[in-house]
Amino acid sequence: MDSNDVSADLAHVLYTKEQIQEKITELAAQIDKDYEGRDILLVGVLKGACMVMADLSRALHSHVTMDWMAVSSYGSGTTSSGVVRILKDLDSDLMGKHVLIAEDIIDSGLTLSWLKSNLQSRGPASVEVCAMLRKPDAAKVNLDVKYVGYDIPNEFVVGYGLDVAEKFRNLDCVATIAPHVYQ
Ligand SMILES: O=P(O)(O)OC[C@H]1O[C@H](OP(=O)(O)OP(=O)(O)O)[C@H](O)[C@@H]1O
Ligand SMILES: Nc1nc2[nH]cnc2c(=O)[nH]1
């Protein structure tokens, strides 16, 4: 291991690459079944959803188109403010489309709660959510989420799209970080 190896900054791996890929396969099979005969517009929420978008879209057998939105709900800290700003809007018109929002994590739920109603107001046929991770103990709003990979404890995690100061997104696992990363 070289001195800059990212794994030295991890405390505990919650889900390995294999477990994540297994879950993606499971979720994709369920989604294919539920959307039989319908095209899906996958909406990825940048930047965290980059991995789940790439993996889920490739695991699906349905016809899929992809679009991206970038929103900001976190200030400089690690607590969601609930005030969401659109940094990049969708390129597509949602009218009559079956929209499936792909997310890496639902923490307070504030980002998705806002996003779901924003997209619903654009006239789609349906809006559902697929999130790889969810923290039930951190929920601040009731959110109807149709597809969830794993429910996790209320701990800050990284990997599989999730970052600290833009690092760790490239990890193929989900992990907590070692205390020295914060020091
Ligand atoms: O449920 P919430 O408490 O609202 O938190 C979830 C949001 O936080 C993360 O995004 P972040 O704002 O960190 O941006 P990023 O995807 O660019 O990392 C994550 O990707 C979700 O979009
Ligand atoms: N990296 C990271 N970003 C988040 N955004 C909301 N919750 C989390 C989390 O646990 N980790």
TrEMBL record:
<dbReference type="GO" id="GO:0000166">
    <property type="term" value="F:nucleotide binding"/>
</dbReference>
<keyword id="KW-0547">Nucleotide-binding</keyword>
<dbReference type="InterPro" id="IPR029057">
    <property type="entry name" value="PRTase-like"/>
</dbReference>
<dbReference type="GO" id="GO:0046100">
    <property type="term" value="P:hypoxanthine metabolic process"/>
</dbReference>
<dbReference type="GO" id="GO:0004422">
    <property type="term" value="F:hypoxanthine phosphoribosyltransferase activity"/>
</dbReference>
<dbReference type="GO" id="GO:0052657">
    <property type="term" value="F:guanine phosphoribosyltransferase activity"/>
</dbReference>
<dbReference type="GO" id="GO:0032263">
    <property type="term" value="P:GMP salvage"/>
</dbReference>
<comment type="similarity">
    <text>Belongs to the purine/pyrimidine phosphoribosyltransferase family.</text>
</comment>
<protein>
    <recommendedName>
        <fullName>Hypoxanthine phosphoribosyltransferase</fullName>
        <ecNumber>2.4.2.8</ecNumber>
    </recommendedName>
</protein>
<keyword id="KW-0460">Magnesium</keyword>
<dbReference type="GO" id="GO:0000287">
    <property type="term" value="F:magnesium ion binding"/>
</dbReference>
<keyword id="KW-0660">Purine salvage</keyword>
<keyword id="KW-0963">Cytoplasm</keyword>
<keyword id="KW-0808">Transferase</keyword>
<dbReference type="GO" id="GO:0005829">
    <property type="term" value="C:cytosol"/>
</dbReference>
<dbReference type="InterPro" id="IPR050408">
    <property type="entry name" value="HGPRT"/>
</dbReference>
<comment type="pathway">
    <text>Purine metabolism; GMP biosynthesis via salvage pathway; GMP from guanine: step 1/1.</text>
</comment>
<comment type="pathway">
    <text>Purine metabolism; IMP biosynthesis via salvage pathway; IMP from hypoxanthine: step 1/1.</text>
</comment>
<dbReference type="GO" id="GO:0006166">
    <property type="term" value="P:purine ribonucleoside salvage"/>
</dbReference>
<dbReference type="GO" id="GO:0006178">
    <property type="term" value="P:guanine salvage"/>
</dbReference>
<dbReference type="InterPro" id="IPR000836">
    <property type="entry name" value="PRTase_dom"/>
</dbReference>
<keyword id="KW-0479">Metal-binding</keyword>
<dbReference type="Pfam" id="PF00156">
    <property type="entry name" value="Pribosyltran"/>
</dbReference>
<dbReference type="InterPro" id="IPR005904">
    <property type="entry name" value="Hxn_phspho_trans"/>
</dbReference>
<keyword id="KW-0328">Glycosyltransferase</keyword>
<feature type="domain" description="Phosphoribosyltransferase">
    <location>
        <begin position="18"/>
        <end position="163"/>
    </location>
</feature>
<dbReference type="GO" id="GO:0032264">
    <property type="term" value="P:IMP salvage"/>
</dbReference>
